[in-house]
User: Which sequence fits this backbone?
């Protein structure tokens, strides 16, 4: 394994750019290769088997690019595919990181009354991985999941600060029994940090947790521990980032701008194949 290799980052589409952005800030010397599976987005409404299959294809494809670590920036993919990908990558010595543990860790630290809401896609809420992670950290925590599937299309439409998004948020939150008892809510979807300020305005007593930075810190710490960092991360030297998408490059560029304030570049189109998936399945 060569420390000059890139760190692979993937998401079902564009949302994982928030995690990539945090990683670039935390590890300025590292090079990244980001794959957005825009041909198959959304993952959030798919079955667990399909999410594992899609995630394996993406991960297998990234492995062809000689990555030294893999970050699953998607909450839904982390919910269902983290264990499979960790198992596949262990023999070839590629650490695999998800986004659930970091968010759970921040939420446990921040909540004063131990009542935590988890917002996410249908898949993430049904997978209960946030609940499991929170309970591993503190079994007395009260967790309530809330699927908010309309947020993803609204955010991709650019309606971050829009009265329709605020109305939808109020409708969703009205479903939560004893809403006022929750002091913390995890933004358990790549897209939701973009409407954090809208949610904070409507629900001022709830602390909304966005964990991209914590995820980046955990990746930094772990790569340092296993001696996998480029030697120059403490200097201002800048690594390269390459973007791959499986469909609609122009839309990725446009929506990507909403997420990170710049148009991702350079972007290449790739086709994912059965052979990509087999790279992972053969390792299991
Ligand atoms: N990236 C997904 C997540 O964080 C949201 C979009 C999708 O459903 O694919 O769960």
Assistant:
């Amino acid at each position: 394994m060569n420390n000059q290799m890139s760190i692979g980052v993937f998401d079902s589409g564009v949302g994982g750019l928030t995690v990539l952005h945090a990683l670039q800030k935390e590890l300025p010397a590292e090079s990244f290769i980001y794959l957005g599976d825009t041909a198959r987005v959304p993952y959030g409404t798919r079955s667990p088997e399909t999410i594992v299959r899609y995630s394996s294809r993406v991960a297998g494809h990234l492995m062809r690019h000689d990555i030294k670590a893999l970050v699953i920036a998607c909450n839904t993919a982390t919910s269902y595919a983290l264990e499979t990908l960790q198992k596949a990558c262990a023999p070839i010595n590629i650490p695999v990181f998800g986004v659930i543990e970091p968010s759970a860790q921040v939420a446990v630290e921040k909540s004063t009354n131990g009542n935590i809401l988890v917002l996410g896609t249908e898949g993430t809420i049904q997978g209960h991985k946030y609940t499991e992670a929170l309970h591993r950290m503190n079994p007395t925590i009260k967790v309530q999941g809330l699927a908010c599937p309309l947020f993803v299309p609204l955010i991709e439409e650019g309606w971050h600060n829009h009265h329709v998004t605020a109305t939808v948020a109020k409708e969703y939150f009205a479903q939560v029994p004893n809403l006022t008892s929750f002091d913390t809510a995890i933004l358990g979807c790549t897209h939701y940090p973009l409407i954090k300020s809208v949610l904070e305005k409507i629900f001022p007593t709830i602390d909304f947790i966005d964990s991209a930075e914590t995820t980046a810190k955990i990746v930094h710490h772990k790569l340092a521990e296993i001696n996998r960092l480029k030697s120059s991360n403490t200097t201002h030297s800048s690594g390269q980032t390459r973007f791959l998408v499986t469909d609609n490059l122009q839309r990725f560029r446009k929506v990507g701008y909403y997420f990170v304030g710049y148009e991702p570049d350079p972007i290449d189109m790739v086709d994912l194949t059965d052979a990509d998936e087999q790279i992972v399945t053969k390792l299991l």
